[in-house]
Structures are given as C-alpha cells and as structure tokens.
Amino acid sequence: MSDTRQFWLDSLTKIVRPVLENLSEGRLAAAMPVEHHPNSLDRREYTYLEAFGRAMTGLAPWLAHPAEDADEEKARLAWCSLARKALRMAVDPASSDCMNFERGQQPIVDAAFLAQAILRAPEELWDKLDGETQRLLVEKMKRTRTRKPSFNNWLLFSATIEAFLRRAGEPDWDPMRIDYALRQHEQWYAGDGVYCDGPRFHWDYYNSFVIQPMLLDVLNAASDFSPDWQTMRAPMMRRAARYAAVLEQLINADGSYPIIGRSSCYRFGAFQSLSQAALLGNLPETLAPAQARCALTAVIRRVMSYQSMFDENGWLTLGVCGHQPDMAEFYISTGSLYLCSAVFLPLGLPESHPFWADADCPWTAKRLWNGENGLCDHALYD
Predict the structure, then answer these.
(1) How many angstroms separate the CA atoms of 48 and 27, rounded?
(2) What share of the chain is helix, strand, coil (3-state, %, to 5)?
(3) Measured between alpha carbons, how far is residue 298 from residues 179, 198, 219 in Å?
(4) At what angle do helices 212-222 and 227-249 cross, to 10 degrees?
(5) CA dihedral sign, ordered 279, 209, 44, 148
(6) What is the H or E stretch that residue 221 is in?
(7) How many CB atoms lie within 10 A of CB 252?
(8) CA separation for the pair 320, 137 (Å, rounded)
(9) Digit-coded pLDDT (tens) for 43-97
(10) For 198-212, what is each residue's pLDDT tens digit?
(11) What are residue 224's phi and psi, to 5 degrees?
C-alpha cells in the first residue's frame, strides 16, 4: 500500500474507531463524551446516532470493495464485521446503545446519513445483515417519517431514507418524498454548480456536506424508477463536477482553506463533494485524479496536525484547527463532528486507480501561487 493511502486509512480509522468499537460492544453512550454549545441541553438525545451515521457515511465506500493489498483486505473485512455488529446494537431494543430514531427533529438527519452509508456499501451493510437486524433497521428508518423536514436541504434526508427503503425491498417506499426533494432542488439551483439551501443562498459548505452528495447518491440508487429522475442525473453530475473544481481551488498551497459559514466544525467534511467526484469518476477534465488526491491530502494533513482535534481518549473535539469550542453552533455536539469522515470517500477506489497510482502533482493554488502557468477558470453555464 502506498504511504499516502496508508495515511488516509490510518486517519479515517483513527477518527471512527472509538465510535464503532464502543458501539459494537454496547458501551457507546457510556464512553462517549458529549461536548456541546452551553445553550443546547438536549444533545444527548441525538449525539449517538449522529456519531454513528456520520462515521459510517465516510467509512462505507472503503468497506464496499475488496482491497488489492492483502493486509488492507484483512483490515477491511474486520471493519465490515465491526460495522455490522454496531448496526445491530444501534437498533436492538435490548441494547444499551439502542438509538433514538423517533424523538425530536434531529434523528431524521442522521438516520439519513446512516441510510446514505448503506447505499454506498449495500452488499456489506445490508445484504450481509441477519434478518432480524434488517427488520429492526427498517422499522427504525420508517419511524422518521413522522417528522416533517425543514424546507431546505433537509428534504434530501427524507429522500435518502426512502432510497434506502427501496434498496431494502420495502414495498411501501415512498417515491413522492424523493421526487419532491429532487424537483425542489432543481428549483433551488443557483447556477455555476451550486444550489441554494432552501429559497435563499447561504455561504457555507452545505453543498458539500449534504446537497450534492445526497442528490447523486439518491439518483444513483433510484433513478431507474422514473424517466424524469434519469433525465436529472446528467445535469446534476455536471454541476457536481463544477463544484468539485471550485472546492479544489479553495485548497490553499499550505493545505488550509476558507472557514466559511455554519457547521465549520465538520472540518474537512467540507470537501465531501470533491472526494465523491473522485470516487464516482466525475472529476472535470481540468482536474486530474492525482491532483485531487494531493490537494485533499494537504487538507487532511493540515487539519490532523492539530493534536487537540482529539481528546485524551481519541474522541473528536469541537473546532476546526484543534479544540475551538466557541465555533460550535447550538445544534453541534461531539457526535455531529464525525461528518468529517466524508473526506475519505476515495478509499473506495482500488490502489491501482489513477487517483492513488499516478505520480504526485501540485494542486491549483500550489501551482499558481508558485508562479507556474495555468488555465483560467470558467463558470458552468447550464
């Protein structure tokens, strides 16, 4: 395995290990600290499903495909088994870590991240589950239907859960929840590869945290159901490729990036769309896979260099550049932070793929600010 891929894998497993190991043994709630905004006193109701769903959505692509390296494959199989044990503990009523899918608004969010993870690795995270765990998981997912999602990116949480239910073979999956989310986001498309988050545009990374990745994952899982959905897929892929190019250009020569908007404490999860474009083979022609790898590696190294990113027991702390608790909004707690795992999606590509195998090359900011020649940037007109 290359040193870079090993660094990525070590970083991912360092982040998610406390969540999955403790949950698989039924002691997540007992072991995980719950750091949160001082004015938000209800986060223990939600933080455990947040941690699990978000950790899994970044881990899933690596779990989905056998590795070419024997040692990596051994590790992957062990993590697949751990993930399935954790899934059972999360939904088993007899488990001390049985999670909240039905109380309050927040569970619809993180049930969706868990559903997204399963859509990214269905053979490992659904087909290989025992029948009782499948039944309990479906039952839990359906309990989120009692909540009305907010009129913004939350529509995609309902859509993602329904896409999972379709994959699970549930005859009462609801295509209307998917159709409404897809059509409404078409209305919210702002141009040049970005969507508004609801009726108004927000300067933040929610196009990468939620909007673009869930749009594509829902379409990849369910577009065959409707010709209208199939028609949406090509333009949404083009927009995602353009947005991936923009994200790559936001990565500075030193691996830092603009910290803009809400939920910045999700750290390098802000680059999920760039990582997803690499995973899906949807990078624009102007952005070589190795260039994306080097840019993302620079971000991961920069953020991971702050030792206070983790507490003394290996749990994530609030902040971006280490422990910065004042950066957390009222809805963010320890569990929320595990969406940072989404930067690691390209681990789902084989080591022989150009993303991993091609020689290092400078990313846009590093090349241009070094005075090298480069192509000018252009908007996407669609």
Answers:
(1) 11
(2) 60, 0, 35
(3) 38, 32, 31
(4) 150
(5) negative
(6) helix 212-222
(7) 18
(8) 33
(9) 999 999 999 999 999 999 999 999 999 999 999 999 999 999 999 999 999 999 9
(10) 999 999 999 999 999
(11) -65, -15
